[in-house]
Amino acid sequence: MPSSYAIVTRALETHQTIMIKMTRPGLKLHREMNLRAATFLLAAILPFCFCQPASAASLAVPGQTQQQSQQSLQVLHWWTSVGERKAVGVLISKLAEQNIQWRDAAIPGGAGIGAGKVLKSMVLAGHAPEVTQLNGVIFGEWADLGLLLELDNVAVQGNWQKLLFPTAWSLLNNHGHVVAAPLGIHRINNLYYNLAIFNRLGLSVPRTWDEFEQVAVKLKRAGVVPLAQSSESWQVATLFETLVLAESGPAYYRQLFVDLNQRAFADARLLHALRRLRGLKQAMSAPVRERPWTEVAREFADGDAAMFIMGDWAKGEFNAWGLNADQQFGCAAVPGTADYHLYSIDTLAMFADDYSHQPAQEVLAQIAMSPAVQSDYNKFKGAIPVWRSPDTSRMDSCAQNSWRVFSKGATYQAPSLVHRMAADETTKDAIVAELRRFFVDDQISEVETQRRLAAIARALSRSGKVD
Fold first, then answer.
1. Helices (H), 58-137
2. Pairwise CA distance, residues 98 & 460, whole Å
């Protein structure tokens, strides 16, 4: 009988072949480029990630007993910025208190693009990590292949269903089984503004797009870049999904990115969001260069740009740099989204393999949901706890507002496409690539991009059928 990983290898390869055949020529090329990039990335990154131990934990050495090796967990993730490393440090410390070693496999790259490719390559090679950061709807794909450890007993003993927000609880479940441990909830539709610049110029925080444009004009007259931005694909798409939410609210947003509804892709609101995205380039430095999000955040923090639209992991980074909300920077909702929460949820999934690491994996799952980790991890990460009733006294004003809006329920929530909450990886990648193409090439019209996005939605609909 073939091994479970041999079966998984064939399943993943078959899925890849089907998806390539399903798509149209442009998408086929996109997928082939991704495969080549994954091979290159794996060869370039793995020697550094898995041969050099993190400062808080080293790799297991030859000669360890089986019991010793079971008391360590290799964890694949993409938390590599200063603030993110502080958050990871909370988990490492708590795990060490239980005599379990965290073997760090941190893959650089925003939005987990590189980490996702490395993870697939490791699984195909039969060397899956014991734990991985695995956000969003992709849980179902891995769980359906029989790879993920079910955490039902941990969830029942910890009373997770009662403690968690319903949205978080639903995300963790696949066919009635809990397949991941939750860490925190990020709000993406944040507008950060530099308080020193705003106070010096007597500016008010823009609540509408008309007000935003007025503020941008005044900033440019003062020689200040109004909006910090990168042309990196995921950052462009993150800005765009925020604009879609501002234009339409969560209901239309879900029709577009969750349901891939054809009428939604033909709607004038999508065209208007594309026009808004192009118009915002006038508020950015020219040309808009491709830079890591941390570099864009630094531009804002140093006062070289007055505003920054980004998820609240940026706030965690500001805090790590010694900047604090309501002192050096302020945070507000992006115009038109004050009542909404565009969210991404940090989670850890465990690969079952031969179940030899199950006790340590279950301990990590329990740690993730503990009061201390929920508070400290999310403070460093910039996020809010997944608990319905956390200790809000330790939250800054940005986090309190995020928690207040998310608590209003699913009607006010929108799952991030870019950060894997709304659609599968193939759909996300195709839409993100098209948005980036539109953003960097002003010769491509909004109408043409809307047409191409609609074609992508038809080709990659959830039914798996091509019109």
1. 66-70, 82-96, 113-124
2. 45
